[in-house]
Design goal:
The protein has two helices and eleven strands. The protein is mainly beta.
């Protein structure tokens, strides 16, 4: 449940992209979205969105090793559409937003899969616990045709284990895996 909120997980802080011709940009309220889905026996049981996500990225499809991604999610900005569920996920046994107000993702390695796809390996921190995660990112169109000033929409997905982050160990109404989805735009 709380994991969808975490998806907001994806990038924090500002990355230097000075005078770069590569697609770069930031995630801020209204410019991107991090959402989560928790399932039970493969059936979605809880989903939500993080309303406050900030981050910065610089993606170089020609030299992916130069790419950088950093995302910060305000865990208290989680919204599922149900106040009772929001309160539970934000509570001490799950995200514990009072003690852990943010979740962050920082890339460590980026590699190109094809003309529009990247694999981003990095570190996700939730509840002051850091674990490695792998994110699959896909550009909505070929970045090679992007002109200066144009925006490139992307979507990304990853999953993480609730137990690895000590999230709701006693909760058995959802599976251990939480799926995250991120969408946004970068500017060339």
């Amino acid at each position: 449940m709380a994991i969808r909120s975490f998806l907001a997980l994806f990038l924090s802080a500002t990355l230097a992209t000075a005078a770069s011709a590569e697609p770069s940009g930031s995630l801020r309220q209204g410019s991107g979205e991090v959402s989560f889905v928790a399932k039970r026996f493969g059936v979605p049981t809880a989903s939500g969105i993080f309303n406050h996500v900030e981050g910065a990225m610089s993606l170089d499809f020609d030299r992916p090793e130069r790419s950088r991604v950093r995302v910060t999610i305000e865990t208290a900005s989680l919204h599922t559409g149900t106040a009772l569920v929001d309160g539970f996920i934000k509570g001490e046994s799950m995200l514990d937003v009072g003690r852990y107000p943010t979740a962050t993702f920082v890339s460590e390695q980026v590699s190109r899969v094809d003309a529009r796809s990247l694999v981003i390996r990095g570190r996700l921190m939730i509840r002051a616990i850091t674990q490695p995660v792998t994110v699959s990112a896909v550009a909505e169109r070929d970045p090679a045709g992007l002109r200066p000033g144009e925006r490139l929409a992307f979507r990304a997905t990853t999953a993480f284990s609730r137990n690895a982050f000590d999230i709701g160990r006693d909760v058995n109404i959802v599976d251990d895996q939480v799926d995250l989805a991120i969408r946004g735009e970068i500017l060339r």
